[in-house]
Amino acid sequence: MSDFRPVQMSSPVLTVRRVDSYHAITVVAPGVAERFRSGQFIAIAVGGEQSSMLLRRAFAVHDVKPDYGGTVEFLFAVRGKGTAWLAERRSRDLLDIIGPLGKPFPLPRDPVNCVLVGGGYGSAPLFPLAQALRRRGCRVDFVLGAASSDKVLGAMAARRLAETATFTTEDGSFGVRGRVTDALGQVIEDARSDVVYTCGPMPMLREVTALGVRHDIPVQALVEETMACGTGVCMSCVVPVVGGDGITRMVRSCVDGPVFRGERIRFDDVGTIPFDALGAPGWKARTDDDYPAREAG
Amino acid sequence: MSDFRPVQMSSPVLTVRRVDSYHAITVVAPGVAERFRSGQFIAIAVGGEQSSMLLRRAFAVHDVKPDYGGTVEFLFAVRGKGTAWLAERRSRDLLDIIGPLGKPFPLPRDPVNCVLVGGGYGSAPLFPLAQALRRRGCRVDFVLGAASSDKVLGAMAARRLAETATFTTEDGSFGVRGRVTDALGQVIEDARSDVVYTCGPMPMLREVTALGVRHDIPVQALVEETMACGTGVCMSCVVPVVGGDGITRMVRSCVDGPVFRGERIRFDDVGTIPFDALGAPGWKARTDDDYPAREAG
Amino acid sequence: MTPDLRVRLGDIELANPIMTAAGCAGSGRELAQFFDIARIGALVTKSVMVEPRAGRPAPRVAETPSGMLSAVGFQGPGIEVFLQRDLPWLLSRGGRAVVSVAGGSPQEYAELARRLSDASGVTMIEVNLSSPNLAERGRHFAHDAGAAARVVNAVRAKTRSDIPVFAKLSPDVPDLVALAQECVAAGADGLSMVNTVRGMAIDPVTMRPAVAGGVGGLSGPAIRPIAIACVYEVHAALPKVPLIGMGGVRTGSDALEFVLAGASAVAVGTVIFNDPSACVRILREFEQALVDRGVGRAADLVGAAHRPPGPRHDDDHRGRPRGEGR
Amino acid sequence: MTPDLRVRLGDIELANPIMTAAGCAGSGRELAQFFDIARIGALVTKSVMVEPRAGRPAPRVAETPSGMLSAVGFQGPGIEVFLQRDLPWLLSRGGRAVVSVAGGSPQEYAELARRLSDASGVTMIEVNLSSPNLAERGRHFAHDAGAAARVVNAVRAKTRSDIPVFAKLSPDVPDLVALAQECVAAGADGLSMVNTVRGMAIDPVTMRPAVAGGVGGLSGPAIRPIAIACVYEVHAALPKVPLIGMGGVRTGSDALEFVLAGASAVAVGTVIFNDPSACVRILREFEQALVDRGVGRAADLVGAAHRPPGPRHDDDHRGRPRGEGR
Ligand SMILES: Cc1cc2nc3c(=O)[nH]c(=O)nc-3n(C[C@H](O)[C@H](O)[C@H](O)COP(=O)(O)OP(=O)(O)OC[C@H]3O[C@@H](n4cnc5c(N)ncnc54)[C@H](O)[C@@H]3O)c2cc1C
Ligand SMILES: Cc1cc2nc3c(=O)[nH]c(=O)nc-3n(C[C@H](O)[C@H](O)[C@H](O)COP(=O)(O)OP(=O)(O)OC[C@H]3O[C@@H](n4cnc5c(N)ncnc54)[C@H](O)[C@@H]3O)c2cc1C
Ligand SMILES: Cc1cc2nc3c(=O)[nH]c(=O)nc-3n(C[C@H](O)[C@H](O)[C@H](O)COP(=O)(O)O)c2cc1C
Ligand SMILES: Cc1cc2nc3c(=O)[nH]c(=O)nc-3n(C[C@H](O)[C@H](O)[C@H](O)COP(=O)(O)O)c2cc1C
Ligand code: FES
Ligand code: FES
């Protein structure tokens, strides 16, 4: 276990480039690269030693390479102050990064058919996943969507890695007009998918999960709840998730996730404390017997 | 008057280099360069837009050149967080600077003999002054001191610009062992100095002023009181100074100074509110008659 | 379409909601080197007292993370010189003058109000209650609702009826809402919030308090969340009372935060030391923020954060609107 | 020569003054991935309650300038699981366990104290008084000196005599020194200061409060000057009472600031989120600061900023010791 624990390091920036409408930064981070498994993420301190921004920013790992002992690439859109600062980095600057963090995507033992569904930059973690699945002989199909064509991430790579790659844009500027869920059902049927892996905004994860349930295949969803530390100590990133025992708990998406079985996430209750969650106001410890077993939210 | 008002600008860094044990940064700042007169300073915002450091840092202008429309050089020792950040700048970075600020050194009308006395980085503003004085045909002598040889600033330039250049170090590693005031008396006599210009730590300014008084020549002292804004709005940089009317006032060194007649600075009362200062606790408005005329503190 | 930036503060109207905070802009002369002071909603002067004041000894300020500590001690020339020299200058440049007053007793405040009412051109009087009450061993008026009310009452009584009187409150009081209510009952036409927060720093080199006198006032972006909470709470309790919000405004978005919390106007203080052009920059950014949100009138947003959550809020629960840009 | 870093907190001694702040380090398990938790003075656990708690809805945190707002709402597993799972783990790694407790009534606090006293290995109990008092419509115990004293009294009565009880105070109370005195009179062996400061932020995109529930607790370097003022004042009033100082400690020099102001030990909170190795880094920097100053014993500096100014201070008046390095 101790070999898998995250490392904190001051990583030199190797390259900064644009990928579609995203910024891509590659850092030299051997410790992170060697431990990484797909679905894990890194958390970066932004603004330097005298920064007024104290909270780390979480980013999915988009690529890992063996060069220089191990490099890690992440992609991001400028969203607020921290990503604006990151976008100004140049090669040789140092970034204080921690990783790899979180639980990885569970990989199937057998060479099954996998469909990978990403929204916007949420596609990033699906690329190392696709490679890992391919190494296990799995069939990989991609469904990638975004608001517009410039925000669809990695179309070329998707085509290269996957059996099929379907694209959706809300404005119809690329691929199918609509949302990923408008195309996903067909892909699942055509590819006879056995499992869905997905990452993107919460409403998309909910729809993808619903579709998985309808097709009776499991969904592995990578959630991005607002995070402050990434290491499990701040309790900010909680999501209501139903456990194997049927009890809903407010679990930390940074250490207990970010990957969860989609069916176990209580999407409709995200942003609330469900009344029946462990320790919710009015909640009382119950014996196993009088607690109704439930498998999905 | 409006031509002399300071400008605020985002100035690209041209070069960063080491000068003795100091860092020297040259920025392209035409507006500042064209308005600058020796003794004035610039105030720099540090740490970028998301910086936790809100207060500007003041630096004497060490050199002004006509290249690129006008460049300004300042020198500094790393002292705290702000100067540490400045020391990491590279060329093409932008610095938010304001200048020129403060009242310049008054220049003599006639070609008199001037001795320029600097301590540590306090020597920096004396170099453009020396050039201005030379242009007016004045004789210039330098007395530069510091704790050790590596902190004596601009020995070469001083030798080049001045009739004589005397150096003192407290550890004796360069020039005369001791303080600038140990050498200054002799220089004043040898050079038949008519006026002293000085910049350095407050205790040094006090000693130099006392020496000037003993030799009965005026002293123009550039003080460096802690500054927060540099533009006259925060009231942090006050020093007790006796006015032409004999009344002591708490004056702002950033706009009413930083250059004052040494004899008018109440050195022994710096860091206090002298009981007889205008508006001091217990102070009462007096008629001109019953107020004793005083010229020096 | 350019948004309508006009805001009302009691009976007066300002061209836009961006002002300077008292003590952070002198009387406008220094800042006029950097921008046209007639362009901002109003200039709030440094608190003026009856007599000239030398203030507190140096060091008067210390930098703290995203803030500063200060203890200036009301250094100023006194009302006489202010009326002769500073006020006319400010008016001659087309500035709207909000004059901040401070005293050691209700009588001193009243005298200031009377003299300012006799002068012409004063847009508003802001009563700085964080001034030591001489009768109470230097306790600030703001720390005693009764004393604060007496001061406000005295000022209102001596102030010309067409000049609104705003009471300026400090956040570290036992019960801010109660104090606000007392001030309004005593005749305040509105409230300014907040003054600095009590703080201290130790210089790790000298091992002594960093500001002479030990305690100082903390200001700057560091205190913004404290100030927002105060504005939000007082607006919730007294929704009809106009508020001027301040405390760490650095950007147009920060100013918007205060407006959403319930402020009709927003003052910029410490950040002026960092950026002397801050007020006009913030005004520009604020206007752009309205344009970006398709808001036509600044006044419509005052207190908007208090409104019951609409569908937008609902969206928020399902993962913030961050999916938007994807 | 390595300085002697040991400090006393009442009857116990810590190897060094650097601790974690409650709620910012879990029970040590996560941080143990980054450093050996046996190396720091003590690990203060997240406040434990009698029953499991789900806490408050997300969003629970918002970043603010040099700080953060949080409203976690005491999410935790309850004392049962804590004693079975978390405490033994911490002790097995050689950590010194300071257990923070929170409840809705003096009785709940007392029960926690009793159960912790029955367990073995608890170094100290920290009583978090910023917990809603169920009998008083959720007002925090810390806001009512009487209620706070009842809680401290109940805890002290049920706690084994060799376990010191520290009361943790919040800075936004009407009279901190009076509250501190009440707590000590009620049996507190020492005080921890400060808890978070009341604050709020509005999300300029959603135009709603940034943390669910509106008000949150402000922490981080932004509040350090507020915390330093509290420690300084309480140490001045109660110089014999050991204090644990906290609020925005980011560097060894910040920790030194708290010690100079009067704290015997210093806790690191929010900065751990930025730097999970912060505690050991700060410990190293603190030790180096003592070496640089030629100080042999950390304990000698406790409250040093209160000592009458020596010649060094005098020097300071004449332009700070900044001439030194020239
Ligand atoms: C597991 C995980 C993986 C992610 N992977 C990527 C990625 O590959 N590419 C990418 O562009 N973005 C990714 N994000 C989102 C990314 O963390 C945010 O875009 C970023 O933190 C925004 O920072 P900011 O300073 O620009 O915004 P600000 O709004 O200034 O951030 C303020 C605070 O809110 C948090 N925050 C804001 N938005 C988000 C968000 N969407 N998710 C989590 N925390 C947020 C920040 O971490 C910070 O603490 C991921 C988030 C998570 C949790
Ligand atoms: C008119 C004038 C000219 C100066 N010229 C030079 C120069 O040419 N080269 C040089 O190295 N230094 C010069 N200084 C001093 C320089 O401003 C400080 O060294 C610098 O501000 C320290 O910043 P810091 O962030 O490293 O230190 P910090 O201690 O982190 O600074 C904290 C705050 O204190 C203020 N401060 C700290 N030390 C001083 C000081 N000595 N004088 C004024 N304010 C201070 C800073 O401006 C800042 O607001 C000058 C100061 C003044 C007033
Ligand atoms: C150096 C300084 C001087 C101040 N002087 C005054 C003053 O004279 N009168 C007053 O009411 N407030 C005064 N204040 C408080 C500010 O007006 C403002 O209320 C406070 O600083 C919070 O705003 P800010 O964070 O934008 O600075 C002063 C603040 C500072 C920093
Ligand atoms: C996310 C978070 C959770 C906290 N939880 C607790 C807690 O459970 N019990 C407690 O006494 N204090 C709690 N605190 C307060 C801290 O222990 C500390 O007193 C405060 O944050 C100031 O220190 P800092 O600025 O170093 O964080 C919490 C603070 C934060 C930011
Ligand atoms: S981000 Fe801090 S616990 Fe998950
Ligand atoms: S530095 Fe602000 S008034 Fe002089």
TrEMBL record, chains A, B:
<protein>
    <submittedName>
        <fullName>Dihydroorotate dehydrogenase B (NAD(+)), electron transfer subunit</fullName>
    </submittedName>
</protein>
<dbReference type="InterPro" id="IPR017927">
    <property type="entry name" value="FAD-bd_FR_type"/>
</dbReference>
<dbReference type="InterPro" id="IPR019480">
    <property type="entry name" value="Dihydroorotate_DH_Fe-S-bd"/>
</dbReference>
<feature type="binding site">
    <location>
        <position position="254"/>
    </location>
    <ligand>
        <name>[2Fe-2S] cluster</name>
    </ligand>
</feature>
<dbReference type="InterPro" id="IPR050353">
    <property type="entry name" value="PyrK_electron_transfer"/>
</dbReference>
<dbReference type="GO" id="GO:0016491">
    <property type="term" value="F:oxidoreductase activity"/>
</dbReference>
<dbReference type="GO" id="GO:0050660">
    <property type="term" value="F:flavin adenine dinucleotide binding"/>
</dbReference>
<comment type="similarity">
    <text>Belongs to the PyrK family.</text>
</comment>
<feature type="binding site">
    <location>
        <position position="237"/>
    </location>
    <ligand>
        <name>[2Fe-2S] cluster</name>
    </ligand>
</feature>
<keyword id="KW-0411">Iron-sulfur</keyword>
<dbReference type="GO" id="GO:0046872">
    <property type="term" value="F:metal ion binding"/>
</dbReference>
<feature type="binding site">
    <location>
        <position position="234"/>
    </location>
    <ligand>
        <name>[2Fe-2S] cluster</name>
    </ligand>
</feature>
<dbReference type="Pfam" id="PF10418">
    <property type="entry name" value="DHODB_Fe-S_bind"/>
</dbReference>
<keyword id="KW-0479">Metal-binding</keyword>
<dbReference type="InterPro" id="IPR001433">
    <property type="entry name" value="OxRdtase_FAD/NAD-bd"/>
</dbReference>
<keyword id="KW-0274">FAD</keyword>
<dbReference type="InterPro" id="IPR037117">
    <property type="entry name" value="Dihydroorotate_DH_ele_sf"/>
</dbReference>
<feature type="binding site">
    <location>
        <position position="229"/>
    </location>
    <ligand>
        <name>[2Fe-2S] cluster</name>
    </ligand>
</feature>
<feature type="domain" description="FAD-binding FR-type">
    <location>
        <begin position="6"/>
        <end position="107"/>
    </location>
</feature>
<keyword id="KW-0813">Transport</keyword>
<feature type="binding site">
    <location>
        <begin position="82"/>
        <end position="83"/>
    </location>
    <ligand>
        <name>FAD</name>
    </ligand>
</feature>
<keyword id="KW-0001">2Fe-2S</keyword>
Automatic annotation (TrEMBL), chains C, D:
<feature type="binding site">
    <location>
        <position position="220"/>
    </location>
    <ligand>
        <name>FMN</name>
    </ligand>
</feature>
<feature type="binding site">
    <location>
        <begin position="195"/>
        <end position="196"/>
    </location>
    <ligand>
        <name>substrate</name>
    </ligand>
</feature>
<dbReference type="InterPro" id="IPR013785">
    <property type="entry name" value="Aldolase_TIM"/>
</dbReference>
<dbReference type="InterPro" id="IPR012135">
    <property type="entry name" value="Dihydroorotate_DH_1_2"/>
</dbReference>
<dbReference type="GO" id="GO:0044205">
    <property type="term" value="P:'de novo' UMP biosynthetic process"/>
</dbReference>
<feature type="binding site">
    <location>
        <begin position="46"/>
        <end position="47"/>
    </location>
    <ligand>
        <name>FMN</name>
    </ligand>
</feature>
<feature type="binding site">
    <location>
        <position position="168"/>
    </location>
    <ligand>
        <name>FMN</name>
    </ligand>
</feature>
<keyword id="KW-0665">Pyrimidine biosynthesis</keyword>
<keyword id="KW-0288">FMN</keyword>
<feature type="binding site">
    <location>
        <position position="46"/>
    </location>
    <ligand>
        <name>substrate</name>
    </ligand>
</feature>
<dbReference type="Pfam" id="PF01180">
    <property type="entry name" value="DHO_dh"/>
</dbReference>
<dbReference type="InterPro" id="IPR005720">
    <property type="entry name" value="Dihydroorotate_DH_cat"/>
</dbReference>
<comment type="function">
    <text>Catalyzes the conversion of dihydroorotate to orotate.</text>
</comment>
<feature type="binding site">
    <location>
        <position position="194"/>
    </location>
    <ligand>
        <name>FMN</name>
    </ligand>
</feature>
<feature type="binding site">
    <location>
        <position position="128"/>
    </location>
    <ligand>
        <name>FMN</name>
    </ligand>
</feature>
<dbReference type="InterPro" id="IPR024920">
    <property type="entry name" value="Dihydroorotate_DH_1"/>
</dbReference>
<dbReference type="GO" id="GO:0005737">
    <property type="term" value="C:cytoplasm"/>
</dbReference>
<feature type="binding site">
    <location>
        <begin position="269"/>
        <end position="270"/>
    </location>
    <ligand>
        <name>FMN</name>
    </ligand>
</feature>
<feature type="region of interest" description="Disordered">
    <location>
        <begin position="302"/>
        <end position="326"/>
    </location>
</feature>
<protein>
    <recommendedName>
        <fullName>Dihydroorotate dehydrogenase</fullName>
        <ecNumber>1.3.-.-</ecNumber>
    </recommendedName>
</protein>
<comment type="pathway">
    <text>Pyrimidine metabolism; UMP biosynthesis via de novo pathway.</text>
</comment>
<dbReference type="InterPro" id="IPR033888">
    <property type="entry name" value="DHOD_1B"/>
</dbReference>
